[in-house]
Specification:
heterodimer, A: mainly alpha, two-stranded antiparallel ribbon, 75% helix, B: 258 residues, six-stranded mixed β-sheet, 9 helices
């Protein structure tokens, strides 16, 4: 392998890339604001949402599928929480549980369609994206809905700062990153996910229920999108029923940069999380540089394109 | 010698196609049988029925004297029937030791969850592959970087690791280089000498390789068994002739001889 020759693991290479990008921004952003504590704190507050979306997407991609709808599920869930609390007057705890259930159900629906009818997951989730988008607009009337529970604990548990410094959402991101790292690299289910993505036929013949494995990956992805949505609506104080397309692309691009092979079966979660962080730094960096945010979308597109080319032209080892 | 497998009067239809027409097929314990026939003769269908991938429309299967009906390959595997396919047997992105235990991973309890016991799997994989004469550079390398012969060896080792009683090999040599074929043939011969109760079914086109390893040849043509011959009472030429006649070809067809 190329990696071995240069004695650089993909993870090390990603870390170097991350540091380089950060250094470039440090020198290009006026007044060294990229190094200010307030900016770094903001970065850590914003990062978790990307991390959740990228982990979810990575799990699905590892099993050989893709979830284009993840960004829309994320937005739908953030709107849904404000809807449940503000419009339907549900207790915040119930509203949060309901939102997580919505995320899981969305994932389950995607997983069901893909495994039961043996459909192409790209096309299935492209279709469900519009279904989720439409239902969200119908329920919300396309208006933003305020979300501000009287009992602040239900907001603080997601977006407070512990000791005034460490953002709560970062703690959640660390918890879920660790949890999914363990699941993926240390449990049977994780091994089956890799095997299913690597060679579904071989996995099936080895007695692995590949439909179940894919289903679980989609449900995890939906759950994580819902969790990201809860953090999102808690930060904004309102559910904004908007298009989730960019978030979906962030999820795919973060996974791809992080070395999750688009065809499935290969890649580490540590890499994917670093990919999410790189995405976050790029996004915030462009904002700080006062360049139009659309540059970020161009970069997202190019990233995915490179990953697709790499997958179809260079990595087809099978 | 008792039969490990007995398939009686097996019928299978695919739409209007009568793929198997009352096949009777048995394998004795410790026997190695070559199941040969042209493309579409029904070899794979018969094997799929035996291993629970698909169901017969009619007929009975006895395994170790008991009537069985495996609902999935998993059930067949648990009963000791391992199938090694020509390809798609290994998840090549996984390290060798994870492939050895794929679907039957060893775990240890850590708190309230089961954690993969990678160390134990590595040690057992290494010991076992070496015991069947398979020397790999590293048990931790990605399976993709093994040679064809090594991959065939890993698939075989995996079957044996879980005490397979009957191994079915579907075109085991097709994807192999001449060296890989030789390695595999030698390995199987040694295994049979060591383990007298191990039964094997070779599903193949290739009579030359089949003849090196089998005790008996069963010829399937268009869903019917047309010949069932002990190896010592037949020859490659004779079987080729049967196959050619079945295919409606006079003389010998190239693909039959391999």
């Amino acid at each position: 392998m190329g990696w071995k020759k240069h004695n650089l693991s993909p993870t090390k290479l990603l870390l170097i890339t991350l540091v380089l990008i950060y250094a470039i921004f440090t020198f290009t952003v006026p007044e060294y604001r990229f190094l200010s504590t307030s900016f770094i704190q903001l970065l850590f507050e914003l990062m978790p949402i990307f991390i959740f979306l990228v982990i979810g997407q990575s799990l699905v991609i590892l099993t050989g599928e893709i979830d284009i709808s993840v960004g829309q599920v994320f937005v739908f869930c953030s709107t849904f929480l404000s809807l449940l609390y503000t419009v339907y007057h549900l207790h915040p705890a119930l509203a949060i549980i309901g939102t997580l259930l919505l995320g899981c159900s969305a994932g389950a629906l995607n997983g069901f369609l893909v495994t039961r009818f043996k459909l192409n997951s790209f096309l299935v989730t492209l279709a469900t994206t519009w279904i989720f988008y439409g239902i969200m607009l119908l329920l919300s009337g396309a208006y933003s809905i305020p979300y501000s529970p009287n009992d602040r604990i239900y907001v603080d548990m997601f977006i407070d700062r512990i000791g005034g410094i460490i953002p709560t959402q970062l703690i959640w991101a660390i918890i879920f990153s660790t949890l999914f790292y363990i699941i993926l690299s240390k449990t049977r289910l994780g091994n089956w996910m890799y095997a299913t993505g690597s060679n579904p036929e071989a996995a099936f013949r080895s007695g692995i229920n590949i439909d179940y494995v894919k289903m679980i990956a989609f449900i995890f992805c939906g759950f994580l999108a819902a969790f990201a949505g809860i953090i999102d609506v808690s930060r904004f104080g309102a559910g904004l029923p908007r298009d989730g397309g960019t978030s979906s692309l962030v999820a795919v691009a973060g996974a791809a940069i992080g070395g999750i092979r688009l065809g499935g079966g290969s890649g580490s979660l540590v890499g994917a999380i670093l990919g999410a962080i790189i995405m976050r730094i790029l996004d915030s960096g462009f904002v700080m540089m006062n360049v139009p945010p659309f540059y970020f979308q161009v970069i997202l597109g190019i990233t995915i394109l490179i990953a697709v080319i790499a997958h179809y032209k260079f990595l087809k080892e099978r | 010698m008792s039969n490990i497998v007995e398939m009686k009067n097996i019928h299978k239809f695919f739409g209007a196609v009568h793929a198997l027409k009352g096949v009777n097929f048995n394998v004795r314990t410790g026997e190695s049988v070559g199941l040969v026939g042209d493309n579409g003769a029904g070899k794979s269908t018969l094997i799929k029925i035996l291993t629970g991938v698909i169901r017969a429309d009619k007929g009975e299967i006895y395994y170790q004297g008991k009537k069985v009906q495996f609902k999935s390959p998993r059930e067949a595997r648990m009963a000791g029937i391992e199938t090694i396919y020509q390809e798609d047997t290994l998840a090549e992105d996984l390290p060798v030791f994870r492939n050895m235990f794929l679907g039957r991973e060893l775990v240890r309890r850590l708190g309230f969850i089961n954690i993969l016991d990678d160390n134990k799997m590595k040690i057992e994989s290494k010991t076992f592959t070496e015991s069947i004469g398979l020397k790999l550079g590293s048990i931790e390398q990605r399976t993709r970087y093994c040679s064809g012969g090594e991959k065939a060896g890993i698939a075989l080792a995996r079957a044996l690791l879980f005490n397979a009683k009957l191994i079915i090999m579907d075109e085991p040599f097709r994807a192999l280089s001449p060296v890989g074929v030789q390695e595999t043939v030698n390995r199987i011969s040694r295994l049979r000498e060591k383990n007298k109760d191990l039964s094997i079914i070779f599903v193949t086109h290739n009579l030359y390789q089949a003849f090196l390893l089998v005790d008996r040849i069963v010829v399937l043509i268009r869903g019917e068994i047309v010949a069932d011959l002990p190896k010592e009472r037949t020859s490659i030429e004779r079987v080729t002739e049967i196959l050619a006649r079945g295919a409606g070809v006079s003389g010998v067809r190239g693909e039959v001889g391999g």
